[in-house]
Write a structure and sequence with these properties.
- The chain has about 375 residues and is of the alpha/beta class.
- The chain has a domain of about 100 residues: Peroxisomal Thiolase, Chain A, domain 1.
- It is built from 13 helices and eleven strands.
- It has a nine-stranded mixed beta sheet with strand order 3-2-4-7-1-8-11-10-9. A two-stranded antiparallel sheet has the order 5-6.
- The longest helix has 16 residues.
- The protein is globular.
Length: about 375
Amino acid sequence: MKAAIAGIGATEFSKDSGRSELQLAAEAVFAALDDAGLSPGDVDGLVTYTQDTNQEIAVAREVGIGDLTFFSRVHYGGGAACGTVMHAAMAVRTGMARTVVCYRAFNERSGRRFGQPDARLGGEPSSQGLEMSWHVPYGLMTPAAWVAMFARRYMHVYGATSEDFGRVAVAMRRHAATNPAAWFHGRPITLADHQDSKWIVEPLHLLDCCQESDGAVALVVTSEDRARDLRRSPAVITAAAQGAGAGQMMMTSYYRDDMTGLPEMSVVGRKLWEISGMGPADMQTAILYDHFTPFVLTQLEELGFCGRGEAAGYVADGGIELGGRLPVNPHGGQLGEAYIHGMNGIAEAVRQVRGTSVNQVKDVSNVLVTAGTGVPTSGLILSSP
């Protein structure tokens, strides 16, 4: 018995939602249940991120969900995105729950902004506080700065340029420009715009960095057999995996022998290909976590779409755009649509499988989805029934 995503729901994506994160979560859950043709009383499981402020029992109360037989949270920020669906699918397949809703809600622009420096990170009495103490006291304390270190090394080893990163940003904004739900709907950019945008941390420009967004997304997971009888065509969860690499640290794995790759994404990719019996050539489109443009290039390499150091050439001339060899993030991704910690990307993957995306790729049977990079991460392959 396979599990499937039977419903997707979201709030609008904004820079100031004007309401609490709990209300955002409830709205997204209601929307996902309506999409599936289910009621709150059908839900007996909830999964979210450890970083979500909304307790499962609080969401259950606000939505009108009754007893819960399964609830869990997944660690590592955006790396949790696909992991929430994996946990839900495991619960369904083992009989621990019949219908599980995964959700993520936050006011990440109007409330706590993840991109802001936080000197307290290096002083926490925890294992992560210990890791952070190696660099936070010296001013290396933002996600952009942490990724910039990797990006500079990648450029040095493989000869990549800022323009290569910029082509990722241009592609994402081009997709977002034709997506009415995207914050940057109607606002594409050129490579010159990318190069002219201000430095955040060299070699990263402003347009190499994803948005800070307010909003929420929810997904309904149940068995494939049951999903077939519901309101919408399901997206079958063909494979799901989590991965952490040897010597892993939180966004700062600088002490490995090589810091030009993302070994944890390779762990996820190998597991996905093993479980599914598929490979890169079987994917018609991919939803790659694009919080920073350099890591989109690295993911293409780690997942086997091209060789080491070859991603810049792969992306050249529209390789990841609609009509290219591998359309990436047809919704615009986190650079163009919204940054909801990767959950909006999973919703787009479902739309691609259903054939209902505003930027629909032709003849989609399988979609690869990845979660946050630089941290322990996760991935999915979603397929047509």
